[in-house]
């Protein structure tokens, strides 16, 4: 089989690791350095492949249909999120879509908890003051806050939220969560997480952490109404998807004191425009979508993404198939 590995934004080392693993299983592999993450810009160049390993490239309906007219039988996501892939259309084209489920959870949860601590303790601002020889924080006895004992609200309760809940347990936090798509009662009980309505989380949490996919229902979910209902001392963390947050509304809330601070690892447009108002504020931590950017995380994700390809073409079960209906359309390919 012929396999193409995309994802030029991730280290070549891991693409080479996947290439070697798949070649050792008897397949031909190419590392395709495509110029953009918009699949429509180069979909026609990949129609001859049997499988693609993607890394966040946008595969809307039209791009999937183009692949469906070729040899592609599998799209293996190097990572977890697949909201950029039209999985239903892929099923209709007889193309299976899978991901490296849970491979990013610990790394992204670490990112979220690090931003919580940094913002509550005001470490970025205090670091800047030391560099400016300003010790007023110390001499004037200005105090920050601890994470210990805070109420943390998780909107979405998937694998990353569960990993975060496990970590928060070490800080004796009260953890409340909601998930309108799937609620794991067994995990909630094990992790001492209390199910709560979204409105209660918004009103009562000291820290709100977002863990949802980007869908028409969640687009701009964090808007002015959401933000004005939060406690003025509250912090917002988003390591999920930039589309969840109305960035202009968030900038307004941070500038006017509607909420205390925010930590973002994702944006609607990446990189953000230079006139994005969030870039001018000091009570927000901004990261370059790097929550999953650890060696350990990418090593695990690479092994799963390449292993899924190997297992698929060996006729072995792939546990993370996200559109099992593809099997109903295999005769059309």
Structural overview:
- The protein has 333 residues and is α/β, with parallel strands linked by helices.
- It has two domains: 2-103 and 294-332, Rossmann fold (3-Layer(aba) Sandwich), CATH 3.40.50.720; 105-286, Rossmann fold, CATH 3.40.50.720.
- It has twelve helices and twelve strands.
- The strands form two sheets. The chain has a seven-stranded parallel beta sheet, sandwiched between helices. It has a five-stranded parallel beta sheet with strand order 2-1-3-4-5.
- The longest helix is centred in the last third of the chain and has 19 residues, at 295-313.
- The protein is elongated.
Strand and helix layout:
Blueprint: E1 2-5, H1 12-24, E2 28-31, E3 51-54, H2 61-68, E4 74-77, H3 87-92, E5 96-99, H4 105-121, H5 123-131, H6 136-139, E6 151-155, H7 159-168, E7 174-178, H8 185-190, E8 193-195, H9 198-204, E9 207-210, H10 224-229, E10 235-238, H11 247-256, E11 261-264, E12 284-286, H12 295-313
Parallel strand pairs: 1-2, 1-3, 3-4, 4-5, 6-7, 6-9, 7-8, 9-10, 10-11, 11-12
Biggest sheet, spatial arrangement of strands: 8-7-6-9-10-11-12
CATH homologous superfamily placement of the largest domain: NAD(P)-binding Rossmann-like Domain
Unreliably modeled segments = none
The name CATH uses for the topology of the largest domain is: Rossmann fold
CATH class of the largest domain: Alpha Beta
The count of β-strands is 12
Biggest sheet statistics? 7 strands, parallel
CATH architecture of the largest domain: 3-Layer(aba) Sandwich
């Amino acid at each position: 089989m012929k396999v193409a590995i995309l994802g030029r934004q991730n280290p070549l080392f891991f693409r080479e690791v996947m290439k070697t693993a798949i070649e050792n299983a008897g397949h031909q592999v190419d590392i395709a350095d495509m110029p953009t993450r918009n699949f429509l810009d180069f979909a026609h160049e990949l129609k001859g492949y049997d499988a693609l390993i993607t890394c966040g490239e946008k595969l809307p309906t039209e791009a999937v249909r183009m692949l469906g007219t070729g040899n592609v039988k599998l799209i293996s996501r190097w990572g977890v999120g697949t909201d950029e892939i039209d999985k239903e259309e892929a099923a209709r084209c007889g193309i299976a879509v899978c991901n490296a489920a849970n491979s990013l959870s610990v790394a992204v949860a670490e990112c979220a908890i690090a931003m919580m601590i940094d913002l509550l303790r005001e470490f970025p601002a205090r670091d800047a003051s030391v560099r400016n020889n300003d010790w007023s924080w110390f001499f004037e006895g200005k105090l920050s806050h601890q994470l210990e004992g805070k109420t943390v609200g998780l909107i979405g309760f998937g694998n990353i939220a569960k990993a975060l809940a496990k970590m928060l347990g070490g800080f004796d936090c009260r953890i409340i969560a909601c998930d309108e798509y799937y609620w794991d009662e067994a995990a909630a009980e094990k992790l001492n997480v209390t199910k709560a309505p979204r409105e209660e989380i918004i009103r009562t949490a000291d820290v709100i952490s977002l863990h949802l996919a980007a869908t028409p229902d969640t687009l701009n979910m964090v808007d002015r109404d959401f933000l004005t209902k939060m406690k003025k001392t509250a912090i917002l963390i988003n390591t999920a998807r930039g589309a969840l947050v109305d960035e202009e509304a968030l900038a307004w809330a941070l500038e006017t004191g509607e909420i205390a601070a925010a930590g973002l690892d994702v944006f609607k447009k990446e990189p953000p425009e230079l006139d994005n108002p969030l870039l001018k504020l000091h009570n927000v931590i901004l990261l370059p979508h790097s929550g999953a950017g650890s060696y350990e995380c990418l090593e695990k994700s690479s092994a799963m993404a390449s292993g899924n390809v190997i297992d698929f073409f060996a006729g072995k079960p792939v546990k993370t198939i996200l559109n099992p209906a593809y099997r109903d359309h295999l005769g059309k390919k």
